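Hallway conversation turned thread

IA: we were arguing at lunch whether anyone had actually written out Protein mrp end to end. Turns out nobody had. So, for the record, here is the sequence (69 residues) and right after it the structure tokens. Reply here if something looks off.
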Amino acid sequence: TLANFQHPTLKHNLTTLKALHHVGWVDGTRHVELVMPFVWHSAFEELKEQCSAELLRITGAKAIDWKLS
């Protein structure tokens, strides 16, 4: 899901950009931290909207804690 996310502000996917900084699992919550070298708040909201449901489904997590650094 994250590897397939496309946005007009990005020339490459998040994996190629090495934006995925940390992924963890604590008490049923999937923690996802992305590091971007520029302000990316509106696209980050789109990413969460597009990917959250599928990540919850495939991981079995109760929630996802997203962080953008």
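OS: looked through it. Residues 20-68 form one domain.
IA: good, adding that to the notes. The two ends are 20 Å apart (CA to CA).
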